Hints:
The protein starts with 10 loop residues before the first strand and ends with a helix. It has one helix at 45-70, and strands at residues 11-14, 18-26, 29-35. It has a three-stranded antiparallel beta sheet with strand order 1-2-3, with no helix packed on it. It is α+β, with helices and mostly antiparallel strands. The protein is elongated and about 60 Å long. A hairpin with a 2-residue loop joins strand 2 and strand 3 (29-35).
Amino acid sequence: MLALSRKKNEALVINNDIEITILDIRGDQVKIGISAPKEVPIYRKEVYLQIQEANKEAMSAANLEALKDLF
């Protein structure tokens, strides 16, 4: 993991086309802005993990149905 210090209105660039800017800092919360191409999905981590779990469950259910069809 790369750890960087940034102040309000400072930014960093990832892979030449994603820019993350610190918009505001209040107490223990940091508001960030992300500028990226539309084809780059951006999720909060807790949402991303829920999507991954739902995909795993769907694959398990789909595989079970496919196996039932074989027999």
